[in-house]
Amino acid sequence: MLAALLLFLAAPAETVSPRYADCVNLVEADLELGRIAAQQWVGEGGGAEARHCLSIADLKAGFPKLAALRLEEISQRKDAGDDYVRARLLSQAAEAWLEGEEPDRAEDALNQALALVPDSAELQLTAAKVYAAQNRWQEVVTAVSTAEEGAFVSAETYVLRGKGRLIVGDYERAADDVVAALTLDPVNVDALVLRGDLAQVGINIGVSLAAPGEE
Question: Which domains does the chain have, with CATH numbers?
Answer without folding.
Answer: 3-117 (1.25.40)
